[in-house]
Design goal:
- The protein is mostly helical.
- It is globular, with a radius of gyration of 17 Å.
- The termini are far apart.
- The protein has one domain.
- Strands 1-2 form a two-stranded antiparallel sheet.
Length: about 140
């Protein structure tokens, strides 16, 4: 009943229907992000977080999974304490568990999070690149 032959990535009309559906979902999640507040963050950070989330089409920049607003964390690629800032190009949209994994030092918690997200060599390599920027030891 929910199947539609016109909803296909192989035709111009099908792609337009898919894109319209994505836009509605993104708008709802952006609205939730706009209504959330993080009192310790700048207006620039809050604006760029929403812009980056929209640009990445709701996907985590490491795992490529779709994120609802409640799962979104915004990571400073170059940390503030290492000279980073709230500019758009320094922010990354991540799943909250991935973000925790980047900053985690406890080996048992790291193992738990890796099992939760599903271990793949590609994901761990990306996480380690982020950990390196933060001055953290790589995980294996």
């Amino acid at each position: 009943m929910n199947f539609s032959q016109s909803l296909t990535p192989y035709t111009k009309g099908g792609r337009e229907r898919i894109h319209k559906g994505l836009q509605a979902n993104i708008q709802r999640e952006i609205s939730l992000l706009m209504n959330s507040t993080i009192l310790t963050r700048s207006v620039e950070y809050m604006d760029n977080r929403i812009s980056r989330y929209s640009m990445k089409m709701r996907k985590c920049e490491i795992t490529d999974i779709f994120l609802c607003a409640s799962d979104v964390h915004c990571h400073h690629y170059i940390p503030i304490h290492h000279g980073g800032n709230d500019e758009f190009n320094n922010l990354r949209i991540l799943h909250k568990d991935i973000h925790k994994l980047i900053h985690q030092t406890d080996t048992q918690t790291i193992a738990t999070l890796i099992n939760k997200i599903g271990y793949t060599e590609s994901i761990v390599q990306k996480i380690n690149k982020y950990r390196e920027k933060c001055g953290m030891e790589p995980i294996s």
